[in-house]
Design goal:
Number of helices: 6
Strand order of the largest sheet: 2-1-3-4
Order of helices and strands: EHEHHEHHEH
Strand content: 5-15%
CATH class: Alpha Beta
CATH architecture: 3-Layer(aba) Sandwich
CATH superfamily: Response regulator
Bound molecules: 4-nitrophenyl phosphate
Helix content: 40-55%
Radius of gyration: 14 Å
Largest sheet: 4 strands, parallel
Structural class: alpha/beta
Length: 156
């Protein structure tokens, strides 16, 4: 059974699709499954924002085939680790968690590098293209840490 990781943001079209693609690229596909979802449903069924697709492509990743969806309660049993992009995602996802063990799976993404500092991966939706590069850099660094940890935890 692969270890399953879910990346979560608000719309599931800008940040979490990048997080999904980046983490996937750092882990062996036979042992790890990475997916993403949004707390909102406005973009369900759509592909990622064209700016996220372009930013990923510039760095050698193809995320164009992803489809947005909203997080659901069954995700808490389906997934082993749930990473959220910002503090409002954290609040929303924790509120949806059906029990304490589900809630314990939810972590703020940047806490992986800067524990307890409550750093958000900023929402780039209403800004310019440079916001997407910044998000990519933050996520690449955090995913490197997450991948290292997961590979160590699940190597036995
Ligand atoms: P994301 O960005 O949460 O990184 O996917 C957003 C995408 C869409 C909206 C907000 C944030 N929106 O308001 O539609």
């Amino acid at each position: 059974m692969p270890v399953k990781i879910l990346m979560v943001c608000l719309g599931n079209i800008c940040r979490s699709p990048l997080a999904e693609g980046i983490l996937q690229s750092k882990l062996p596909a036979d042992k790890f499954t990475v997916d993403s979802a949004g707390t909102g449903n406005w973009h369900a069924g759509q592909g990622p924002d064209h700016r996220s697709v372009a930013t990923a492509k510039n760095r050698g990743l193809d995320i164009s085939c992803q489809k947005a969806r909203q997080i659901k309660v069954s995700d808490f049993t389906e997934f082993d680790h749930i990473y959220v992009m910002d503090s409002s995602n954290l609040r929303d996802v924790q509120q949806l968690a059906p029990n304490a063990s589900a809630k314990a799976k939810v972590k703020l993404m940047m806490d992986e590098i800067f524990p307890g500092q409550k750093i958000d991966v900023p929402d780039p939706y209403f800004g310019g293209p440079e916001g997407f590069d910044k998000v990519y850099d933050m996520l690449d660094e955090a995913c490197e840490m997450v991948a290292g940890k997961l590979l160590k935890e699940h190597s036995a």
